[in-house]
Amino acid sequence: MAINVVACGSSSDEGSNSGQSLKGGPGSHGAAGDGGPGGQNGSGGERPKVGKIHVENTKATIRSRAVQNYLASVLFSDRANLQPKCEAVPDGQCTVYTCTGSISGDQNNVHIYRGGIVRIAGTAVSPAIQLEPGAGPLEYSPVSGNVSLWSGGESIQVTGTGDPNGAPAFAQTLKAPSLITLSSPTWTRREGGPTIDRSKNLELAWNVAGAASGTVALFLGGPDSAEKFSFAQCAFPVADLKGTVPASVLGKLPAGQGEFTVDAEETSVVPAGSDWDIEVSLASTGALADGLATGDATFR
């Protein structure tokens, strides 16, 4: 899981913001795309309206049973009120966010638009996935299926026909992210998630099935309160097969129960029309040897 954020201020440690989003799906908590909360390439040039097309692909073994599925979702909306306001502190390949307000922003006051028919296609996506606007509160109903769409590295084409009263037409092509299996840290089903010592570096390691493609995206959600919450996002090239979260990042998260999620991602944000950014994100759910690489983290 990741969170849509608007940076209301920032301070800088050594390193730079990796800017990769985690699970940037409509109705989920997805970051702002390349360059992080500041907008495209960290320039602060976000446009006032945003289209978010997200495809989550899962292929894993759970309780000795093979599980394959996908979920595709679409949202076209004003950016205002869509996300909480956060202070961002970059640290190497990670960024720590401290946020105020609701984790989902003020979504009761978000204006929703249509963007015509959205189509997701490619050699790995057959038949193509098509999402059409309807009469529901979010306009587009998610589309799901019990198959895995890709193995990693395939070209995925995402297009939208546009709507004269909503989002403009667009077309983007991305490489599907790899299927990854986390080898460190790991935990048992009974444990439910990792225990993380905030005074030490956290070492990640993973294996890749097929071609190495995309970015390994880590989300660490700290304990939250009614007034504020903190989380960290880190990004590492899939081909590296390992990554380190420094203790300086972990130490900025409060002690207690939180969240740990790893997946592999590929995200593209491009301008469309005069006032739209179109964000397309593809994610491969991280797996364990038996289970998914998401759980309740204990920060000590």
Oligomer: single chain
State the distance separating the first and last CA atoms. Answer: 21 Å
Instruction: Note the beta-strand portion.
Output: over 45%
Total number of β-strand segments? 22
So what's the overall shape?
globular
Largest sheet properties: 13 strands, mixed
- What is the mean predicted local confidence, pLDDT? 83
Helix content: under 10%
How does this structure look, described?
Residues 8-50 are annotated as: Disordered. Residues 9-21 have a biased composition (Low complexity). Residues 22-45 have a biased composition (Gly residues). The protein contains one helix and 22 strands. Helix content is 1%, strand content 50%. The protein is mainly β. The strands form four sheets. Strands 1, 2, 3, 4, 5, 6, 9, 13, 15, 16, 18, 19 and 22 form a 13-stranded mixed sheet that branches. A four-stranded antiparallel sheet has the order 8-7-10-11, with no helix packed on it. Strands 12-14-17 form a three-stranded antiparallel sheet.
